[in-house]
Amino acid sequence: MSRNRLTVVLSQAPGKHPAKRSLEESLAAALIMEPNLDVSIVPNLYDLDAQHTGRMFLESIKSDMVVLSWLYPRAAFWLLDRDGIKGHFGETLLKSADADDEEQEDTPTEDKGVGSVGELPDRHIYTLDLRDGKNPDVFLAEIRRIVTESDNRAQTKIKPTTTIVQLGLPTFTPEALAATPNRRWYPVIDYSRCTNCMECLDFCLFGVYDVDLFDRIKVENQDQCKKGCPACSRVCPEQAIMFPEYKSPAIAGADTGAVGSLKIDLSRLFGGEQKDAVSQAVEERDRELVADGRSAVGAAVGLTKRQENKSEQAKDDLDKLMDDLDALGL
Question: Which of 33, 231, 234, 258 would you label with 169, given CA atoms 20 to 30 Å apart?
């Protein structure tokens, strides 16, 4: 029997897509009937600003939490982290609908980035993608499993000698939580991948990025980001920059297959029509500069590090793969 109440937050999709709304309503109705769950509904996570009641509610939760949204789990987790809602990443057993068995087995999930700043709270945050199932029972089964996991973890912790009571937490009404926020567009950084190379800071010419007190890259002026433009994500060497609502899964935060540590699109290797990522990013940035009444700069600005180090770097996995393809006459 569960000893703790687990907070479950359902983040609604933007707009009024009937199939998505139907799943949300069915899931909410089922969740409120579950014992030991505190269930709340908030608008789209990506759109919540610091003054929105839904964001304040999320900040007030101090224990384990499950967040269901229409975002990839990695994007949702680091989106919460950037908003100060921190914890350990809770592993889920739900399998993405577009996941590939071989890719998942061949792609290690090893953190090599700078990580979140400061000591993480002693709690786990589970981020579930609502696109991973059409039946509420799929999510209910996983949440029940998480409840058991959370209980087991709580029982192994050393019990405090004194009880800490939180006072003065604001009251959040369902109407205030669900108030429709304005739509937004900005990058989210996955610090488990980010190596603080600062290439995004060099490349972006719109003042979106800066560094924090720990000299770590951060999104400083998110409203200066150009809507629909994912250029900085394309030039990130570690694929650490996400735009959670972009059409391409790799940029939106999906885990993709890899050759070594470098993620690639094989269609580009075999003469596909797609441009390489950096060239596409340069075009996207130039388009936004011109729209702002500024001059296009091409590849002459923001790629200095890549150009200076190009001749000095040892061949990476992609270079070796290309050599092998050349040797085969492909």
Answer: 33
Please enumerate in sequence order all residues whose Cβ is within 8 A of that of 166, keeping only pairs 6 or more positions apart, or say none: 62
Express as a percent the part of the chain with pLDDT over 70: 76
- Total domains present in the chain: 2
Helix (H, G, I), strand (E, B) or coil at 221: coil
Q: Tell me: do 202 and 121 sit in the same domain.
A: no
Q: Are residues 164 and 207 in the same domain?
A: no
pTM listed for this prediction: 0.81
The range of the structural domain enclosing residue 79 comes to: 6-177
Domain assignment present for 248: no
Return the structure tokens found at 56: 């304040």
CB of 192 closer than 8 Å to CB of 115: yes
Residue 174's pLDDT is 87
Same domain, 171 and 212: no
In angstroms, rounded to a whole number, what is the distance separating the alpha carbons of residues 73 and 79? 10
CB 231 within 8 A of CB 182: no
| Angle in degrees, CA 227, 228, 232, rounded to 5 | 95
Task: Tokens for 70, please give them.
Answer: 């229409």
90: which strand partners? Answer: 126
Statement to judge: residues 34 and 70 lie in one domain: yes
